């Protein structure tokens, strides 16, 4: 069972490249993240047209959810940053919006889950 999740919230640079963005993200970028130690699975989501709170629809449209098995979140974060630095994880600024920057979050599982 994974010990946590890694979330990445992102946008395509424009609607004109959305299909190419999704193909690249699924076929290339997510596969590069899956190659990192401890990353067990990847799932992607698109923002639904209806939201619970007004204004929530004005944010990033895509979510990547990676299940992670690690006991050392600092080491995981360092490995992820190093993978960007040495080219094991690539970005496509022509497809991936970088302003605002992709938001990334790590969540560790709490004990006693259902």
End-to-end Cα distance: 12 Å
Quickly give the CATH architecture.
Answer: 2-Layer Sandwich
CATH topology: Alpha-Beta Plaits
Give the biggest beta sheet. Answer: 4 strands, antiparallel
Query: From N to C, what is the helix and strand string?
Result: EHEEHE
Query: Quick one: CATH class?
Result: Alpha Beta
Poorly predicted segments: none
The chain-level mean pLDDT equals: 93
Rg (CA only): 15 Å
In total, how many domains does the architecture comprise? 1
> Percent of residues in beta strands?
15-25%
- Beta strands, count: 4
* DSSP summary: helix tally: 2
Shape: globular
> From the helix content, strand content and strand pairing, which structural class follows?
alpha+beta
What spatial order of strands do you see in the largest sheet? Answer: 2-3-1-4
Helix content: 25-40%
Polypeptide structure, described:
- The structure is a single chain.
- By secondary structure, this protein is α+β, with helices and mostly antiparallel strands.
- 26% of the residues lie in helices and 25% in strands.
- A 4-stranded antiparallel beta sheet has the order 2-3-1-4, with helices on one face.
SSE inventory with pairings:
Elements lengths: L3 E7 L7 H17 L4 E8 L15 E7 L4 H13 L17 E6 L6
Keywords:
4-stranded antiparallel sheet; Alpha-Beta Plaits; 2 helices; 114 residues; single chain; alpha+beta
In short:
This protein has a single domain, classed as Alpha-Beta Plaits (2-Layer Sandwich), CATH 3.30.70. It contains 2 helices and 4 strands, in the order βαββαβ.
């Amino acid at each position: 069972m994974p010990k946590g999740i890694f979330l990445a919230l992102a946008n395509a640079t424009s609607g004109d490249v959305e299909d190419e963005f999704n193909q690249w993200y699924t076929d290339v970028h997510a596969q590069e993240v899956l190659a990192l130690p401890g990353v067990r699975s990847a799932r992607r989501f698109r923002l639904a047209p209806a939201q619970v709170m007004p204004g929530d629809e004005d944010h990033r449209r895509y979510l990547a959810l990676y299940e992670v098995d690690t006991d050392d979140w600092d080491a995981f974060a360092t490995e992820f940053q190093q993978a960007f630095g040495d080219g094991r994880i690539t970005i496509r600024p022509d497809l991936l919006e970088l302003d605002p920057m992709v938001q990334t979050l790590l969540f560790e599982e709490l004990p006693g889950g259902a």
